[in-house]
Specification:
- The complex is a heterotrimer of chains A (424), B (559) and C (621).
- Chain A has eleven helices and 16 strands.
- With 424 residues, chain A is α/β, with parallel strands linked by helices.
- Chain A folds into two domains: 327 residues, Alkaline Phosphatase, subunit A (3-Layer(aba) Sandwich), CATH 3.40.720; 57 residues, no CATH class.
- Chain A has an eight-stranded mixed sheet, sandwiched between helices. Chain A has a two-stranded antiparallel sheet with strand order 2-3. Chain A has a two-stranded antiparallel sheet with strand order 9-10.
- In chain A, helix 2 packs across helix 7.
- With 559 residues, chain B is mainly α.
- Among the domains of chain B are: 136 residues, no CATH class; 152 residues, no CATH class.
- In chain B, 50% of the residues are buried.
- By secondary structure, chain C is of the alpha+beta class.
- Chain C has four helices and 30 strands.
- In chain C, the strands form eight sheets. In chain C, strands 1-30-29-28 form a four-stranded antiparallel sheet, with no helix packed on it.
- The longest helix of chain C is centred in the N-terminal third of the chain and has 117 residues.
- Classes of the chains: A alpha/beta (424), B mainly alpha (559), C alpha+beta (621).
- Chains in contact: A-B, A-C.
- Chains A and B meet through helix 1, helix 6 and helix 7 of A and helix 12, helix 21, helix 25, helix 26 and helix 27 of B.
Chain lengths: 424, 559, 621
Amino acid sequence: MHGRQACNSTEHFSRRNFLQGVTGGALGMAGFSGMVQAESAKKLISQQKQVVVFWLSGGMSQLESWDPKPGTDYGGPFQAIPTSVPGVHISELLPHTAKQMHHLALVRGINIRENNHSKGSIFMQTGHKETPGFQYPYLGSAFSEQLNPAESPLPGYVCIGRGGSPKEAAFLGPRNVPLTLAEGKPPQNLVAPKGLSPEADRKRREFRSKLSKRFSLGRRSAETEIYNASYDQAAALMTQKDIFDFSKISKEDVARYGKGDFARNCLIARQMVESGITFTKVTHTNYDSHSENFNFHLEQLGEFDRPFATFMSDLADHGLLEHTLVICMCEFGRTPKINPRMGRDHWGTAWSIALGGCGIKGGAVVGKTNANGTKVIDREVDGGHLFHTYYRAVGLDPSEPFYHNGRPFEKANPKANPLTEILS
Amino acid sequence: MSLGVSHSVLADDSAPVEAPKPTSQAPEKRVSFFPQIDKLIAAGTADYEKLASPLADDSEFLRRITLDLTGMIPTTAQTRKFLADSNPEKRAQIIDQLLNSPEYARHMQRRFDVLMMRRLASKTVPPADWQAYLRQSFAENKPWNQLVQEIMEADGSDPKTRARARFYLDRAGDVNLITQDIGRVFLGADLECAQCHDHPEIDDFKMNDYYGISSFLIRSFVYTDKKKKTKPVIAEKAEGETKFEDIFEIRDKVSKGPRTIGMTIFGGEPLEEPTFKKGEEYVVAPKKDNSVRPVPKFSRRALLGKALTSPKNRRFARTSANRLWALMMGRGLIHPLQDDHSENPPSHPELLDLLTDQLVAMNFDIKAYLREIALSQTYQRTSRRTEQNTAADDSTFTHALLKPLHPAQFAWAVVQATGEADTQRISLKDKLTEDALNKRLAGYENKFVALFGGQPGSPPEEFLATIDQALFLSNDSMVMSLTTKKKGNLVDRLLLLPADNPAAIADELFVSVLTRKPTADEVQDVSGFLKDLKPAEKTAAFQELVWALVTSLEFRFNH
Amino acid sequence: MNSRLLCALVLLSLTFCLQTIAPAEGPPAPPLPEMSAHPAIDFAKGDAARQQKLVQKLTTDASKATAAVTAVNQEIAAATKSKSESQKSIQTATASIKKSQQAIKTTQAKIAQKKKELQAAKKQLEQASAKVKQSSATAKKAEELLKETEKKLTDSENKTDDLKQAVEKAKSELKKTQNTANKSQEGLKTAETKLAALTKELQLAETKLKSTTTALATSEIQKKKSEAALKLADSSLKQLPKKAKPLTDTKKLADTKLLQASTKLTRIQEKLTLFAATRPAATPQNIRLTQTFKHNRPMISCRFDDSGDYIFSGAMDNSLHRWDLIDSTKTTLDGHKSWIRRFDFSPDGKSLITGAYEGQLIWWQTLANSPSPQKTIKAHHGYVRAVAISPDGSLLATGGNDNLVKIWSTTDGSLVKELAGHERHVYNVAFHPNGQHIVSGDLMGVLKIWEVGSWNNVRDLNAGVLTKYDTTFRADCGGFRGMDFGQEGKLLAVAGISAVSNAFAGIGVPTVVLFDWATGKQLQVMTPPGNTRGTCWSVRFHPTGRFLAGAGSASPGGIWFWKIDEAKPFFSFKTTSAAYDVDFHPDGLRLAVSLYDKTVRVYDIGPKLPSEKKKPVAKKK
């Protein structure tokens, strides 16, 4: 199998191959071959698996969250607090999350050798280092492709908050493009225009497709297929618009999750999981605290902690966690060294993420950094290992490649391996 | 700057169509070469004649050429007029007419703006100024090489021509970014990989090629006078060289250390460079406190435009010929366009040579060049495949390719099809100019671009059809408003037709939206759709029909 | 330590030290007035006294050190001497040993020789005695023969001649043998004498041998002894320099310390002279570094105590550090679990209350040798960001991340009042000098003014420029980094960052906002020169209230001095790195900043001394 390696790798594709790989015409076909795959993927799993990613954009400080080093030269002013898992301590900025630690595993030995926002997020969200001229599907699109039933009327990938670009789907096609609920609002235009009865709507769509069928005689192509498909998907989504009706969320829940956009987005995410959305990404911005790292983390994590913790406990209480993988990650961590602006800078060298739920051993901790957190001293891993772990957690085999135009594309870097220590 | 003065073919169909203004180099003075185009295309595929689809009918041709040259569909009246016209020269005439319309300039401005600026966010140059500059250039049919040269030479210091410098300034003078986009846009070469190492698979793309271009720019940077708070401009130092080392060689420990290269464009001798005595390199020497914009006696960047567009650099001519071809045909002879290298040979090498030679011979006269392509049979074939060519690869050009409408094209096609454009024309009355109309309808274009235009900096390279787009077209109030009855719009016109004459209704509907007369079956469908309607339901029914046509596959593509 | 009490000590010590330490420094200073017009003079006197103590201490240190060095040098000398001596005695011993050994050899040879001779002599003796036996036997035979012959003669009638002849013959035979017997008797006698002589000689030789052997033994012992002595001397010669090195170093150090201290003392003399002559005034333009206190973590706060004898500074290490301004000794106050950004002194200077980011307050004895927490209370949920003690010393006001202002009794640490009203983190609190109001400021630039006693929120001021919601960052950024009252409370200054263009990178303008307390009118928005970017981390009024100083981060950092009625500084000073806090010494002629580069630096802004004018210190500019 031909590896899709980074530009500086020995197995380096000619641009021609790249572009045959990704451009135009083939797009829809990828969709089709993809669907076949999704079927085979589903054979592997007993039931519908779901995934929720909390994307803390800008790069959350591991020292103010998952891997505190109080009292050391780089530790900062915050304390470490015990959690629901004996012996595991996290930052005092996450008191509620600490109580949910038994649902979460920590990966404390991440080194992605990238300190650049876009390179970091590509590595963490595609499992591969940035590859000039080629793009791997993002986690959301990849899992939408593999876990969302082909016949499902639901979008496979919903993104709540900022981010969620169509590009994330790469060659997996429009079917796996994130449906973005910007600012936590439902998708626009979910409701048929006023005065248009369902009957009339049906009629006009029939007329539309009749015409279109006629046109595609002798002109059928992947593009024509996709275009027609998009109307069917839209119509299907309209029948599901209730899942985007957030008015039903109870006052009690709102009170439990607390104020703010992120709290609201967590409630929306819960509703997405309950509605069976395969992959949900909740973004929380922004952690890029080059200045006033401690004041800003007080604010950001103040927003994050309670809603996230409540989300975890709700999923656990409703039995959703068993088949829902929750990943809390960002593009990188932040420098141990505190800069003169009381800030911390970009740091891909030694940082942490948390994940839990489906397939994950709650309370497990893997990887270790040194006393003041400047380097990984045990079980160093990167985005590749993490991708293997995500795949295994939801019962998929990352070694089975994507096929696109009959060409195989690795799902996860074969040089990396899963973190079995935290897999249940 | 107003283009309104020039007569707009689409502005007011009731007005008599002026004789087309001669293009900058009158066609009659030049021997047309479009017959060779067809010859060489045919030569490219065995039994081409057997395989080839027939020519498109007038409707298909009119819609295609109007979309390709003006970015919108013809008005109902123009379509009717054209279909009725029995003049055998009418296709040639309409081509010239469109080429000389202000819509042409606007359309080319949009296409080349996206090509060159990738919808990058505006930093220091208002996109409107830059677009006006492009539009003006296409309106006066400025030779392509001259246009490129102007952009490459601009430094933004002269307010009058500052807009030209957007290519540099809104890329913040980032040498790598600029080098890569120059390679991609003007040289058909995606050189990104060559930034770090010779391309291991493509012998033609070397670090030397990458840094040969960079070395024109390596001394340039964006200068702002912090004290005076002046607008940023491109400035240049008198020293500085590219430095590069192949990371593969470093990895394999065979690197002979960092290299450098002088000003070269894809091989060839590095350009000469005068040397000055220490301390005499500057007209305006830089100051420690950065209070002046340095000006060297010798500017490397000033040479880039000439070097790039020089006849010696065939790559530029070839890339330009190929790009303009693709603009019309939906596919390059070299495809993808930025992959002009020995491992990706042209589908029709001789044709590409011919086109390249011709483009150079006609001094990069874009209008004249597009005209030749438009006149070719290859361009004018129907997009409907025949039984013979169902299997034929797109690269054979046995049939016209479907070209998804670009966001702006789509928007303008929609406002024209639904008659919103007509309503605005009527309301503008004698104030009607292309510019005025454009201002009135720009809102639609922006909304479509926002939804279909991808992320800033990365317009979609391929056709995307997403749920939210479909939802937008299905339910969005703005889209729906286009089908509500307004003076002179399509629904309005349909309502004026006798209800008992579905044929007439179908005819107006199809001609207006799809630029063609309906087939018998379609007339049937329409009358079926309208059967036993209560008068109260008429409007709604028409709206639904208009919607169905506007959202149909046929409408979404330039076929 | 109060400055009045100092004066007494001063006059004594001054006269003393003028003669002893600084005779080279020209004529002694003119007599000093008992009470002085300017506080700086009292402080200078106090400093002089303490400096003098230090000098004395250092002098003793120095002499001790010198003594130690001399001692060790003597040891070295001794060792060297004993070395050479033992070497000599080893030589002599070796020589005599050789001699004895020689003698022993020869004696032994002689003995051997004599023994041989003795053997020979004995043999001769035996032979001689054998001869004697033999000869006497022969003689006996001859006698008997004679007797026989004579008998025959007598018996015979016939007396014949033959018989007569035989008798004659026997007679002579007898004579002959008797002679021989006599001779061998003599031989025997000589042999005996010879033997006796030899035996005597042998005895002599043997006694001699004995004596030489004993001589040899003694000199060998002597040699061993001396060798041991040599070894000892050698090793001590190896060791002693090692022992000497630190001592000499200590001496050098002590000497330099002493020198510095003395120079400093003379400086203070100079000051006193100068101040007595002309009333001293603070002149920021004269700013020069006088002391640098190094630590191993960035320093985030600093205050001089009221005695002016110490500088206190909180570091990014959960401790407060106290440096003695005279002898520079550092004392660390441990007890908090996080950073100490704010602390305040009781008016009597005896106690000190710190507040730290773990939410606790700790009471300390300001001047205890090694202060330990007197009282610790959990004051706020989250950071304690602000601590202020009331002018009468009875109350303590604190503010923190629980958006609360809390009032405590300084005596027992009991909560007096909880002031709710701020909607965001409380960054700073201060008591108005008249003790009747408290002002507290939060992240949103809101200043709340509370009436002491009724605890009503009597009015609010707003320094809106010091806060901003960054829409990209989606966070509020700003708040009050510094707060100070000036001119007996007529003016209130607050510090922070304004015009934030990028909250991520903290790109904004270091800013001080000045309010008129009475009217609440915003008098000035003060910013550094040019387009300085950064944060103003602290602001302080000069004791005179004529100008104020802001310190902050600004590539890398700076101290800015603003006149009360001007928006731009009349003087700016670039610091070595970001400055997080600034404080004026109560003498008004010194100021300190705590810096990111892990130092607290004390600067003099008083009048230039004659000696300084001679060789002006290089200005960092």
